[in-house]
Design a protein that fits this description.
2 copies of one chain form a homodimer. Chain A is an alpha/beta fold. Chain A contains 14 helices and 11 strands. The longest helix of chain A is centred in the middle third of the chain and has 23 residues. The two termini of chain A are 12 Å apart.
């Protein structure tokens, strides 16, 4: 489906459309953006994809700080987007509000939880959109929908006015139609100077990360990988995360400590509300919360130690201009109506996807997903990660790829 | 007053006392701790120092992650402590629950917002206590009450289950009776390895920070400063933050961008609840919220840029084993019942205090306040700050001071 032909109604990306004018003029003049419905826009209820949440919370009285920054930089806000309930899914099928359209692959899920934000961008209904990303909620829908996606270094973009899920991993993410817009939006939100581009020193291809991916994903990513050195400059090197961290745990098990911390924190953030409001959830999300509530919280102590060790090891390993390169997701977007089973271990969709997305989460690293490939038209993203705090460099690297070099 | 003679009732430090046994055994075996009432303990309402907040929120169903970590490391929880309403004050005089005792200076405020946590530790009713620290809420009461205090690198201790105030600056802090306990508690919460002590490379005495302090504070800190090199090793050097950041702004004005971001984020976190619940506040806190609501949120964009620039400059300036040294507070604790006027600029108590505390806030730096001096028995703290992420090193440095070298 050509994105220019898609209407707001056909996209099913929005929970509400409106027109909020810029508050000032700046780097984002003339750009239209959409906001995930876990992020406050003044005067609206932040529904978090769940009607009980919406009805049990008052309307926002001010914009989230990140929304304010975008309006002050000249952008125009066109609406709020559908997301997975309480942002706790990677699929994008909302029991109450339906499934936002994956424009390039209409029979597949857009990915979540920032499903509507990715859909709105891929459908051409916004130049960029705000998402959130705790365990992949911006990067996965970017990969599935064929948009650019950015997860910042943890703690570098304000989360004030954004509904907390798991604060140790919560970030505000950006989805965009091209790398130039992505970089400018990132620059505004980070409050950083826009640096001149410079080539990376070393690009580490993470061997275990590619090995986790399906054969078709590995195969279509091989061509963009081959072209990386000529596009970016820098030395390409195969590296093993197991040698970087060296604690005897394989990358395929990183999802495990990640999920322990994430679930413990979700219960801390949402448990009291769930117990008192007794919300109606869709069946898939209800099952996820059920799984979460069975967590043995004594495991938090060891998981926190692993988090600290992984973050330290990765940030000592990476030079300021080094990059990691991994597939954003290990598999194509699942088909609609056929959700993969939720679990944190094994070879299923969730544990493999979370093993890849948890590299940035555990390491506090910034990550950009580039829409670099497709399997018979179904998009799949290639990701670059930088050292903690090197967001501006990473965004400038992303700009070295233009539309011509991407395959969507 | 000798701390061993003070009862729970005399301290007025606690909103509730109880006995929560350790969940396991570890580094904190045998230690008793108290928890600020902005942090969840399962089965209790988290009251945040305000009765309307308490009554409009359900009881916690699980412990905050940081509480869980302490119980798992062998510590015993003895109660929840009084704090300033919604943690939005540096004084520690609560309109509804009274003023926790400042054991060393009973006619002065304990400092806030973690007033009861500092009081409980200084009164000998807990070995250590959890506080929170957004703009000084652990460091200021540590200085006022003559305890050790630790604000971690932003984002390095989980805030899940802790009531958000201004997420870009919110941290979980620790108050402790001695540096050994402080370091062990920090090690558990950070999930980090306990490193062998090593001497700092350079200790930068920040000249403008000392110049902001009252003459009596400068005078009593001169003796511990003189002894720093022999206690710690390392080279002592006078440095100017204005040369490190070099953006034309004097340290005395750092409170300004700090408050812009803090107030904008507080409004994002609490504004909707205030508008809908119409809480009763004490007069001082009501005035603070009134001031906050008048913020021109267009100032957020520039303040965020300054924050990013300050953080980057400070962390590039500091080597991994360098320290900054400043007074924790510019003045002795104010007398009870005579609150200084709240403002973000000028030479009053708040702007001077916030200029000092905002160095860690703007820089994302870890800070330890050491109970090193007193003016006629009234405590005042000396602070050491490290590079972002160097918390473990900083805590080991603090351990080089023992009870003999402190002056409280």
């Amino acid at each position: 489906m050509k994105s220019s032909d898609i209407s707001v109604a056909q996209s099913n990306a929005f929970i509400a459309t409106f027109d909020l004018s810029p508050l000032s003029s700046g780097l984002l003049n003339g750009l239209r953006f959409a906001v995930k419905d876990t992020i406050d826009v003044a005067g609206f209820k932040t529904g978090c994809g769940n009607p009980t949440w919406r009805d049990s919370h008052p309307a926002a009285v001010v914009h989230a700080v990140c929304v304010e920054q975008l309006l002050l930089a000249g952008a125009e806000c066109v609406g709020k987007t559908i997301c997975d309930e309480l942002a706790f899914s990677l699929l994008g099928e909302n029991h109450f509000y339906g499934t936002p359209l994956n424009a390039h692959a209409p029979d597949r899920v857009p990915g979540g939880s920032s499903s509507g934000s990715a859909s709105a961008v891929a459908c051409g209904l916004a130049d960029f959109a705000l998402g959130t990303d705790t365990g992949g909620s911006t990067r996965v829908p970017a990969s599935n929908c064929g948009t650019w996606g950015f997860r910042p270094s943890h703690d570098f973009i304000s989360v004030a006015g954004v509904n907390p899920l798991a604060p140790s991993f919560d970030t505000v993410g950006v989805l965009a139609q091209n790398a130039g817009v992505l970089a400018n939006v990132g620059t505004v939100l980070l409050g950083c100077a826009s640096l001149p581009a410079r080539k990376p020193t070393i690009i580490h291809l993470i061997r275990e990360a590619f090995a986790l991916a399906d054969a078709d994903v590995q195969q279509v990513l091989s061509e963009p990988l081959r072209r990386l050195p000529e596009t970016l400059g820098g030395a390409l090197r195969e590296s093993l995360l197991e040698e970087v961290v060296n604690d005897g745990h394989r990358l395929a098990t990183w999802a495990d400590p990640f999920c322990v911390i994430q679930w413990a924190e979700i219960e801390s953030c949402l448990g009291a509300w769930i117990a008192s409001a007794k919300p109606e959830f869709g069946p898939a999300i209800a099952a996820s919360f059920q799984l979460m509530s069975q967590l043995d919280r004594r495991r938090v102590a060891e998981a926190m130690e692993r988090r600290e060790q992984y973050s330290r090891s990765l940030n000592e390993f990476l030079g300021p201009y080094d990059l990691l390169c991994i597939p954003t997701t290990p598999a194509l977007a699942p088909h609609k109506g056929d959700p993969p089973k939720r679990s944190s271990s094994g070879s299923g969709y969730y544990p493999r996807t979370l093993s890849l997305t948890s590299i940035a989460g555990m390491g506090r690293l910034p990550q950009v997903s580039l829409p670099m490939a497709n399997v018979n038209g179904v998009p799949v993203g290639l990701s670059l990660l930088g050292r903690h705090g090197q967001d501006s460099f990473l965004l400038q690297v992303a700009k070295m790829f233009d539309r011509e070099t991407t395959l969507i």
